[in-house]
Amino acid sequence: MAEVIGIVGLAIAVFDQFLKLGDKTIETIQCVRTFAEDLKDASETIRREQGIAKALNYLLFEKSPKYGGQMLFEQYDEEAQRFILSVVGELVDALESAAKLLDTSPPSPLPAADLQRSGLSSHAGTLSSSITLTEDKTNRAGLTFFERTSSSASLRRKLRWSFYDKKRAKDIIDRYAKLNGHLYRVVQLNSFASGIGVDLQHLENMKQSRAAQELGFDETASLQLLAREAALGMAANFEVSDGWMSTIEDGRQVEGRFVTFVNEGRPYLQDTCEYKLPSISDGIDNQTRSRLNGLAALLQQPKEQIFRIPKCIGWKYLPSTKDIAFIFESPGNPHASQPQSLLHLLSMPEFKPTLQAKFQLAYSLAKSISQLQMVQWLHESLRSENILFFPPPQGGSPDTVALSEPWVFGFDFSRPENFFSYGFADSEPERDIYRHPERQGNPTAMFSKWHDIYSLGVMLLEIGIWEPAIQQEHPRDQFKNMKTPEDRKNRLVKVARKRLPPKMGGKYSDLVVRCLTGNFDVGDDTKGDIKLQQAFRSQVIEALGRVLESI
C-alpha cells in the first residue's frame, strides 16, 4: 500500500511539473517575436493541449466524496497508475526539450532606437530613427541590414534557427501534442472500460464533474448510464407514431434495406431490420419492446463524431413485412443523390479509391468500433452493407464520395454488453462471412468484443483489396461448401497475407490478420477487456494513424 501511495504522490509532482513547463513554453513563445511569428500554430497547439492537460489534472487528482474522499487516480489499479505516470514522464521530457531549445535560440530583432541605446548601431554608423529591422534593406543572400552588421556568431545562430532549430521545435511540440492525446485516451479508457467504469457513483461523478465535461467524458458517462437503464428495462418508449409511416411510404428505397424520405423539410433515413417473431406471437413481445426502447435510447443520445452514428428518432414495427424500422436523422442533403453502402462501392469496378482514402476509411471504422466498445456497447451486425456514405450537398458522381466519413447503421442485434444474447441462427453466406466462427450458423458462444473486432477485420480486408469478402472464395472451395467456420476464417487470413502486402503494405496486412485471428497477445484480461481494448488501440488504430501520417 505504501508503494501505491508513493506512485500517487510522484504522479501529482510530475504532472505539476508538466503543467508548469507547458505554461512556461507558451510564455517563452509569446515573449519572443521571432518565435511568435515562426511558431504561431505551435503556440496555439500548446495552449489547446494545456487546457486538456489541466482538466485531466483536476479530474485525476481532485479528492471527491464519490470516491470516499479519494482521487480518481487512486481508483485505477497499480498497473494503470504506473502507465499514466510513464506517459506524463514522456510529456515532461518533450517540454523540457522544447524549453531548452527555445531558450538557446536567437532573440527577436529589436527596433533601431533600441539598437542605438545598446551601442550595436556603431557597426553601421548613425542610424536614422526611421530605419528598423523590418525595412527591406537586403543583400543578395537575403539578410536584413541588422544581420549584415551583426557578429558572425549571431548570424550563425539565426541561420541555425531558420534552417534547423525551428523545424526541431515544431517537431518537439507535435510530439507533445501526440503524447498529450495519448494521455487523454489512456485516462478515458481506464475511466470507462475498467471496473470503476461500471460503478454508478463513478459514472454520476463523470457526468457532473466540470473537468469531465471539459474533456467530453460526460457524454461517455451518459451513454453508460443509459446502457444500464436499458439493461434493466428502464428506457422510455421510443416507438414513433403512425404518422411517420405515411411519410416513409413516399420515400426512396436504397439497396433494399434503407429508405430515404423527407419530413417537414428535414431528411431522414429508415433502416429496416428483420425481426424474427416467435411462432405463437402476432406482434412485439414486452421483452423485445424493452430492448428496442433501450437501443433507441442509446442511438438517440448525443455522441461524439468519432462514433459515426447519426441520431435515432425511434423505431416502428412493420406488421406487413414483420420488420423493425429504425428512423435516423440523415447526415445527407434531401436534394442530393442517394447514399451508397460500402458493399455497393466495393462492387463498382469504375470506383478506384486512392491509397490514402482507403487508409482513412479503415482508420475511421476502427475508431468507431473502439469507441463503441469503450462504452460497453456491441454492434453484432458489422458488415459492409451497413456502412453508408452520403454524397455532398451538391451531389455528383460516386467519385465525390468521402470515404473518410462513413456512417454506421445495421443495429438490428446491437445491445449493451451486459444484455444476454446468443443471437438467431443465420446461415446466409453473404452475412455469415462477416461473423466470427463462434457466431456462424447456430451461435455457440455469447457475443463479445472479439466478435466485433473479427467483423471489422473482414471489412478491413475488403477495403484493402477493394472487393467484397464473399468473392474471396476459391472456385473449387466455395464458402457455403466449407466444412467448418474455421475453414472460412482461414481462407480470409490466407487472402489477407497474400493479397494485402502489395496493395496496402505489410503493416496493414499484419493488423488485419490480428483482427481475424484475435492474436493481440492479451492474457489474464479484466472483466471489461481493458487490455484487449488497449491492444486494439495500439496495434490497430495507432498503427493505421502512423501510416496515414506518412502518406
Describe the structure.
With 551 residues, this protein is of the alpha+beta class. The protein has a domain at 2-109 and 147-215: Up-down Bundle (I/LWEQ domain), CATH 1.20.1410. Helix content is 52%, strand content 9%. It contains 19 helices and 12 strands. The strands form 4 sheets. The chain has a 5-stranded antiparallel beta sheet, with helices on both faces. Helix 1 runs antiparallel to helix 3 (40-61), helix 3 (40-61) packs parallel to helix 7 (152-192) and helix 10 (217-231) runs antiparallel to helix 12 (286-300). The protein starts with a helix and ends with a helix. Mean pLDDT is 79; it is low at 107-150.
Please tag this protein with its features.
5-stranded antiparallel beta sheet; HeLo_sf; 9% strand; 3-stranded antiparallel beta sheet; alpha+beta; DUF7580; I/LWEQ domain
How would you summarize this macromolecular structure in one to three sentences?
This is DUF7580 domain-containing protein. The protein is of the alpha+beta class. It is 52% helix and 9% strand.
Helix and strand layout, with pairings?
Layout: H1 2-31, H2 33-38, H3 40-61, E1 63-64, E2 70-71, H4 78-103, H5 112-118, H6 145-149, H7 152-192, H8 200-208, H9 210-215, H10 217-231, H11 242-248, E3 252-254, E4 258-263, E5 266-274, H12 286-300, E6 312-318, E7 323-329, E8 340-341, H13 342-346, H14 355-374, E9 377-378, E10 387-389, E11 407-408, E12 415-416, H15 429-432, H16 449-465, H17 485-504, H18 506-517, H19 530-550
